[in-house]
Q: What sequence folds into this?
């Protein structure tokens, strides 16, 4: 086992998110303690939170939506963008996607996705890269909980829109984050998702699953 894998396994517990219990994941319970442990482990201060150790409200709802609508991904080339723990990628693989890529910019997330895919007995290709700008490679792109910061939203939105305009099915799920664009989205479903007080300021969040239309 690599040092990263060892760190993940020793700081998480195999468990299942409430909204998509079909998917087993290495998940943590306390974000702050894990955040501090990660900074010590990597010997780097001011890291972003350990997103990879949680299935966020958006990720839970999006994964639920895929599990309830398997035809959307069966036989398709799927990208889970900003995959975190990789729950949606794993669901797509379980549902018979032709290929599944999971893109992340966090090394620990990449390792967590690999461990989580193995836990579920499926194959997911991890892309440790900022794939924003890459076109024509996927039939379906899923992105859970990606509008939590303005710079990230500004970075990814033109690309997601362009893909939607060129015929890629772009699905996203958002629990009311401040930077979610107001236009170019069609609501597909709504889920009330149990979450952790260590991540959110409440125990439940209403999450909307959208399809990007591309129109502004
Ligand atoms: C709030 S988490 C959501 C994770 C997962 N989609 C979910 O809903 O559980 C946001 C994730 O976006 C990742 N991220 C941020 N910018 C990215 C980029 N340009 N490319 C890939 N991943 C990115 C972060 O590392 C983090 O894991």
A:
């Amino acid at each position: 086992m690599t040092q990263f894998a060892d760190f993940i396994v020793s700081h998480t517990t195999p468990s299942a998110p409430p909204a998509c219990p079909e998917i087993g994941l290495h998940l943590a319970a306390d974000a702050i303690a894990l955040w501090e442990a990660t900074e010590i482990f990597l010997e780097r201060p001011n890291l972003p939170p350990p997103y990879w150790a949680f299935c966020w409200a958006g990720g839970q709802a999006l994964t639920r939506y895929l599990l309830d609508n398997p035809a959307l991904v069966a036989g398709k080339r799927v990208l889970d963008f900003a995959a975190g723990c990789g729950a949606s990628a794993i669901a797509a693989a379980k549902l018979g996607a032709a290929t599944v890529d999971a893109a992340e910019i966090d090394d620990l997330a990449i390792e967590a996705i690999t461990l989580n895919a193995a836990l579920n007995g499926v194959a997911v290709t991890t892309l440790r890269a900022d794939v924003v700008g890459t076109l024509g490679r996927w039939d379906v792109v899923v992105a859970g909980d990606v509008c939590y910061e303005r710079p990230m939203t500004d970075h990814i939105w033109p690309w997601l829109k362009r893909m939607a305009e060129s015929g890629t099915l772009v699905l996203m799920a958002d629990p009311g984050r401040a930077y979610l664009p107001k236009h170019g989205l069609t609501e597909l479903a709504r889920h009330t998702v149990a979450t952790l007080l260590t991540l959110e300021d409440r125990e439940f969040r209403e999450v909307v699953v959208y399809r990007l239309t591309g129109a502004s």
In short: The chain has a mean pLDDT of 97.
